[in-house]
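Allow me, if you will, to draw on your knowledge of protein folds for a short while. I have a record of one protein: its chain in single-letter code and its fold written as discrete structure tokens. I remain grateful for any guidance, and I place the record below:
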Amino acid sequence: MEEKTLRHSFELLENDAACLDARGLSWETIIDANVKWILIKRFPIPTGYNITEAEIALMLPDSYPTTQIDMVYVTPSLALASGASIAQLSIETHDGRSFQRWSRHRTPTNPWRPDIDDLASHLSLVEESFLKETKKNG
């Protein structure tokens, strides 16, 4: 199967690109409706879901890294294998496709620190959010 050429519509910060490359992830950068997005292909999904990998999208604010990355968008949609529902989800269209938006945010006890946090720390939060759902609902 021939893989589609990956789009790189804007440059990532060097440490963010290095993070994705070190994980062996295939990724793209796109601009959709004047918004910057990172699309990460075949992102591993933990046991307890209907699928084992998905494409995730992360919206990069214009003022990133001063402003935090927030939430995660997933396609195809995730469902728990147990059949339990997952709260705070909605469907949005980006890049002409449907993505499941996971409304998960940093807290006052875990704020964004522009001098420390980056794509790697946000991906850790994404993974933690996916795992947390399997533990409380799986």
Notes: The two ends are 34 Å apart (CA to CA). The mean pLDDT is 95. The CA atoms of residues 36 and 60 lie 5 Å apart.
